[in-house]
Design brief:
Layout lengths: L1 H20 L4 H18 L3 H24 L15 E6 L7 E4 L2 E7 L9 E8 L2 E6 L2
Parallel strand pairs: 3-5
Antiparallel strand pairs: 1-2, 1-4, 2-3, 4-5
Helix pairs in contact: 1-2, 2-3
């Protein structure tokens, strides 16, 4: 079934390209599963068997191999990199609202303790949703 072979290899190539743009391992799993379905398409004409092969290999790659590959990685998310930074207060910060200037971007912030006045230096303690939780820098 040449049409199915063509379909599986196109799915694999597109998924691999998307994975290069958005590295999540999801599309890489689809690409690898597509390669196995493509190989099976040369042996078996049944589309059902090809789809089942695709699904089985997708599940194997996504649920068994991904955790192994990411188990030892100590990568931080971009938001984790904000914790511990010293930033300047743009507008007074209370326990409910305020804003800081972080590398030229304005972030909403709230104080962990008390009110912090404008132009003070603060330390980013953690993220609470999309707000920075800060304390006055000593």
């Amino acid at each position: 079934m040449k049409d199915a072979s063509f379909f599986w290899i196109i799915i694999s190539i597109i998924s691999f390209v998307v994975e290069l743009i958005t590295p999540t391992f999801f599309f890489l799993s689809i690409a690898f599963a597509g390669v196995f379905a493509w190989l099976i398409s040369f042996l078996v004409d049944s589309l059902i068997i090809q789809v089942l092969t695709f699904l089985v290999f997708f599940l194997i790659f996504f649920f068994l191999i991904k955790p192994v590959l990411y188990k030892n990685k100590n990568e931080k998310f971009n938001s984790d990199l904000l914790i511990g930074k010293i930033v300047f207060v743009r507008e007074d910060i209370s326990d409910k609202k305020g804003s800081v200037d972080l590398n030229g971007s304005i972030w909403q912030a709230r104080s962990e303790v008390g009110v912090i006045s404008k132009d003070s230096k603060v330390l980013v303690k953690r993220l609470d949703g999309n707000k920075l939780v800060v304390t006055k820098e000593e």
